[in-house]
Amino acid sequence: MKTIFGQIMITKEIIIILFAALNLWGCTKGEENLVRIAVVGPMTGDQSKQGNDLKNGVELAVEEWNGKGGV
After folding, report:
1. What is the pLDDT of residues 21-34, one digit of tens each?
2. Rounded Cα–Cα distance for residues 49 and 56 (Å)
3. Predicted pLDDT at 61
4. I need a surface site. Which of 17, 60, 62, 71 has the fewest CB within 10 A?
5. Per-residue pLDDT for 17 more than 80?
6. How far apart are CA 30 and CA 19, in angstroms?
7. From CA 30, how far away is CA 37, in angstroms rounded?
8. Which residue range is the domain that position 39 belongs to?
9. Residue 21 class from Cβ within 10 Å (0-12 exposed, 13-18 middle, 19+ buried)?
10. Rg (CA), the chain
11. Does position 59 have pLDDT exceeding 90, yes or no?
12. pLDDT of 1 strictly over 60
């Protein structure tokens, strides 16, 4: 019979392994000049306006950086 602490440790290990695998998968060779930016916010529901404002702000910042010659 496992304790709750043992179950939490197993869950943490699985999350760490999945995170590492996704990071390695994301490092595959692709477009060299491509920088991907992720935005996490509420895109639906009551808070969707804030999420859309956040997304629009990031898109504006990307346009400004690209206008200056990129990263």
Report:
1. 877 776 666 666 77
2. 10
3. 93
4. 71
5. yes
6. 20
7. 15
8. 32-71
9. exposed
10. 19
11. yes
12. no
